[in-house]
Structures are given as C-alpha cells and as structure tokens.
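Write out this protein's structure.
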Amino acid sequence: MNNLKNSLKSNNLEFDDKFYERCNEFIKLLQKWGKVHNLSGSLHENDIIENIVDSVYPLSFINNFESFADIGTGAGYPGLLLAISKPNIKCYLIEPRIKRVAFLNFVKNSLGLQNVEVICKRVEEVKDIKVDLITSRAVTNTSLLLDLTKNISKDNCSFLFYKGSMLEDEIKKAKLDNCTIISRKERNYLYLQK
C-alpha cells in the first residue's frame, strides 16, 4: 500500500487510513474477479494503483460537491474510487452491464460503502436522481455525455470527464467555452462548471 500512498502524496493528495485499507481490498477483489470476468485491462497491482491515482487526482482541483453520478463505472474507475475517498458524499454508479454491476455491488458490500448506490441502467433511462457532479471515463464524446445526463443534473451541476487525446475536437464540437482542462500523464481532465 506504500506504493499507492507515495503516488498520491507525489500528486499532493492525502487520505485517511480507512481509504488505504479499502483500496487495498478493492485491488484484491478486482484481481480476483477480473481474472474470471474480464473487468479491466491490466490486473497488475501497479496498473491498478495508477488507475486509482487517475480516478482521485481531480479532487486536487475540483470544487466541493454533495452528490455525484459516475456514468459507465465498469470496474470502478473513477466512480467507486471517488466514493471510497469521499465516504460522506452520496454516489450513484450507473452501469448497464450486469456482470460489472454484480462486481460493483460486491465491492460496495465488502467495503461497507453506505454512500454508494449501484444502478443497472443506461444513464438516459435513469429518472429519479439529481446530482451536482457528473463524472465519466472513456464512455462517449462530450456532447453526447452532456445530452444523455440532462435528466440527472441539477441546475448548477458540474461535469468531470476523463479524456484522452481527442479532447480539443470534442470541446469544439460541444461548443464549450467555460471549461478547464487539467493534464496529467496521458490523461486530460475536462472540468465544466455551470
């Protein structure tokens, strides 16, 4: 766990012991389930640690939020890790694939994450929640994400999208002018505040 702690510290992020315990358990569960169910690309501990850092890194620059929904959570990046790091914040993990929903629910229960609700639907089918932050990593283009999440966004909702190299084109197509782009390694974080 020192690798994770050191990686986070080098990115100016520090968490309590409970966070590191839960991350350690998450790594074990992902490695165990991932071998059987093909949940994530690489199951090497260092790669999982990098994905954890990637998931929580935006906490170093985004504003406070009281609830969030992660679209297409998959193996837990970034939504589950954000929920682990913010156990007092209401979190909705929206994932349409049953196998991944089963994994997310298993991790939620194993780690005792009272703040997490896993929803097995496509985001456009979710009607009964409203959040002030929407996150997503590698799901679809920015314009479509903004459109698909209209039904769950509060009026003052912010958006945090984990993007790769096509971000500039997506920003132009979505006609965004009030966004912040933070880069770390090969990741671009698009932070849009309304």
